[in-house]
Design a protein that fits this description.
The protein has 15 helices and 16 strands. It is of the alpha/beta class. Helix 8 runs parallel beside helix 9. The longest helix has 30 residues.
Length: 481
């Protein structure tokens, strides 16, 4: 038998494997670059409901990271809509059907009026790749400006515009230009700057001028509305408006990547780009992950002018399953649940509570450098030195590990140094969930501090001196001196 083919086992025939068997088969059959959460001791999840995951032994985990299951794992309204439509029809999206137009109309109602043309695809990566094509066709330019540490997807075209990836691979293409990440905690312009939004926007203006001096032209500025891999970054006010002004003056378009942040996650608004103010509107918006609550559904929204230029090239665009009847039925159900369960309101209330609780830990734990976020998009940045803002990468990893092992809470890290503990839970995350998570983080950081102090004392020799002093003080018979 071929080395890549596994021998069938009795448990495989029964459709149920022990965790150890699953791990062996995964290592043998699945590419090793496809890494698991908690790779040293993976969790085998067999069931989920709401904000909870369950392993093969019935142990329950609180899920703080599955932003894909936007309205909650296995929401009954979503599974019912999917099942009903699948039982009736699922077919090529090139057949005329009601669901795709009804869903497009519902999405249009959440967006600025000029974003009124939609292309449905199957993933955020597909959406971002199509956005690049739209920008290139409309502007007839090639060059793209992206933010440092950005990640926009796993297709070749998107690896090329994702510094998070291309710096580990072939490097930066000549048509890609990297602007500073507008990080007011550890970036070029920080929280004490009088106008960081303008200052960071001007770095993009300078970059555009440099591109022009090289005889090149800008096609698009491409950015997540809230940079996630960059470390749960909240863009300073006014930044996007000024960048859009500079980019459009250079003949380019502004692309807002909402794959991680759309559909009410920020609480106060349906889309994260709306945090930049009512007057700001991107030229292209991409969306994905939360749209289908785990079902592959994604979309590009743009203007009539940009869509018209794409049509005018004479090349038909079609996506066999993008916007198929089942996908759109699920998308409609997700929108219904967001409204009926007031999940935007929940994100506002619970997110503010989570952020407040984490902020209150700062005076007790010097290792907490920054707490930032909006709605249920929150980051806790750990540092070894508050003045220098040195990333506490190892401690962040320790917190993630102990939360999983001791408290059955799943979180993960992000940021350029993996020093930011990120929270992007399902939108049904509750006040009690927030309080439990912060209580456990507090306990872990307190224990870490005690161990750190003891280790320092032992290393410096002070521990032996203090122990001897304590014995001396408490001894009634000191004649041994």
């Amino acid at each position: 038998m071929d080395a890549c083919v596994s021998e069938p086992t009795e448990n495989m025939a029964l459709g149920k494997l022990r965790k150890e068997e699953t791990l062996v088969l995964r290592k043998k059959l699945i590419g090793q670059s496809c890494r698991l959460f908690y790779s040293e001791d993976p969790v085998k999840i067999v069931k989920a409901r709401g904000q909870f995951l369950f392993d093969e032994n019935g142990k329950r985990y609180l899920d703080c990271i599955s932003n894909v299951q936007h309205v909650g794992h296995c929401h009954p309204s979503i599974t019912k809509a999917a099942s009903a439509q699948m039982d009736l029809l699922n077919t090529n999206a090139r057949f005329l059907h009601d669901n795709i137009v009804m869903y497009a109309a519902r999405l249009a109602a959440t967006l600025p009026e000029k974003l009124c043309v939609f292309y449905f695809v199957n993933s955020g990566s597909e959406a971002n790749d199509l956005a690049l094509r739209l920008a290139h066709q409309y502007t007839q330019h090639e060059d793209v400006i992206v933010l440092d540490h950005a990640y926009h997807g796993h297709l070749m075209s998107l690896i090329d515009i994702s510094p998070y990836k291309f710096r580990k691979l072939a490097g930066q293409k000549e048509w890609v230009h990297v602007a500073p990440l507008p990080d007011t905690y550890r970036g070029l312009y920080r929280e004490d700057h009088p106008n960081p939004g303008q200052a960071y926007a001007d770095t993009v203006k300078d970059l555009i001028e440099e591109v022009h001096r090289d005889g090149r032209k800008i096609s698009a500025f491409f950015a997540e509305s809230l940079p996630s891999v960059g470390g749960q970054i909240i863009l300073p006010q006014g930044y996007s408006t000024k960048v859009a002004e500079y980019v459009r003056s250079a003949g380019g378009v502004f692309v807002a990547d909402e794959v991680q942040t759309g559909f009410g996650r920020v609480g106060s608004h349906f889309w994260a780009f709306q945090l930049q103010g009512q007057g700001f509107c991107p030229d292209i918006v991409t969306m994905g992950k939360p749209m289908g609550n785990g079902h592959p559904l994604a979309c590009v929204a743009t203007t009539e002018e940009i869509a018209g230029a794409f049509t005018a090239n004479g090349v038909e665009y079609f996506n066999t399953f993008g916007g198929n009847p089942v996908s759109c039925a699920i998308g409609l159900a997700v929108l219904d649940v967001i409204e009926e369960e007031d999940l935007k309101g929940n994100a506002t209330r619970v997110g503010a509570h989570l952020k407040d609780l984490l902020t209150k830990l700062q005076p007790q734990h010097q290792i907490i450098g920054d707490v930032r976020g909006v709605g249920l998009f929150v980051g806790l940045e750990l540092v070894t030195d508050r003045e220098q803002r040195t990333p506490a990468t190892e401690t962040a990893a320790l917190v993630v590990k102990r939360l999983k092992e001791e408290d059955n809470i799943c979180v993960s890290t992000d940021g350029p140094w993996e020093s930011v503990i990120k929270f992007k839970p399902p939108m049904c995350f509750s006040m009690d969930d927030a309080e439990l998570t912060v209580k456990c983080i507090d306990r872990i950081l307190t224990g870490w501090l005690h161990c750190h102090i003891l280790s320092t004392l032992v290393t410096t020799g002070l521990f032996a001196y203090m122990l001897f002093s304590l014995i001396l003080k408490n001894s009634k018979d000191q004649t041994f001196i």
